[in-house]
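Hi again,

Forgot to attach this to my earlier email, sorry! This is the prediction with protoporphyrin IX containing FE bound. I've pasted everything inline since the attachment limit keeps bouncing my files.
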Amino acid sequence: MTTQKLAKGLTPVLNHVASKGVVVDMQDVFQRLTFDTTWFGKEKKLKQAWETLDDVITGLIARKRKDLSDGVVSKDMLTCLMTGQQSYSGGFKQDDKFLRDTILNLMIARRDMTSSSLTWFLWLIVTHPRIEEKIREEINAVVPESELGKPRVFEAEDTNKLVYLHAAFCEALRLYPPVPFQHKAPIKPDSLPSGHRVDPNMKIMFSLYSMGRMETIWGEDSCEFKPERWITDKNMIRHEPSYKFLSFNAGPRTCIGRQVAFTQMKTVGATIFHNYNFEMIKCHIVAPNVSIILYMKHGLKVRVTPRWP
Ligand code: HEM
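Structure tokens for the complex follow:
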């Protein structure tokens, strides 16, 4: 699913729930949106599911290999991986098992991380009206005058100038990292900067969730949702080192989908806040679940109303 389709796929669903006046779980909507796996039924055994995925992915790789040998070169991630372009693959050609695992990773990573981020982001914005207003002001400034006050689906190109929206996503990811904790093991005995000795039998756990809220890392207002902290005096996104802002991991296994994720999230963010108002359901409890992905335990139940007739 391309970035544009992601935002386009959302509007018919939201128009429908708005017209019926029903309560909708936006976490569920975002999860369905970001991963189209209807062909991969829940009742299937894991082995069968793996074989199906294997067949599909092997077919994709074979088709791409034929395209490449016929001289058809397109600008997608699989082409980059297969032709060994530096930015995606580290500059060497990949074997089929590596390609298959990477494609699977891309499919799964996309669904879980992006839908988790969108869910927390939406909740944070709806519960911070001042920030919601600023996001809408910024969105209005990029909409051509002839299209103001009308429904609109945003595309990747529209989102380049949305600095405040980008900052709001960074801030949501800082406070609610979709991967809330990680572990690493040293390949040989070593000592940490703290002086603690570590060896290959040990696993070092660290909590990204806690690190995103530590005063020693982010300052006294570390627990506040404040997109402004990400914006420089020149109205650009402030660069934070990946070992400080760890939501995309750091080092050699860092997320390769970071830019794609921001573009997708911004097209969805701009589209939903331009077109709809969201109202939280009273008494609905928003709480994180205990899992390797930071979902909302009870989903995100809201009512949706269109902003334009
Ligand atoms: C907000 C959205 C996203 C977040 C927060 C995120 C975060 C992460 C994190 C923390 C890892 C490291 C996982 C680990 O070491 O166990 C990772 C890896 C990865 N991500 Fe993302 N990701 C996001 C979106 C995406 C998207 C949209 C794609 C694909 C287009 C993607 C592709 C990948 C891949 C392929 C890896 C594995 C890299 C490797 O192991 O070499 N991610 N991501």
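The CA atoms of residues 42 and 49 lie 9 Å apart. Residues 102, 105-106, 109-110, 113-114, 117, 173, 178-179, 247-249, 253, 255-257, 260-261 surround protoporphyrin IX containing FE (CB under 6 Å).

That should be everything now.

G.
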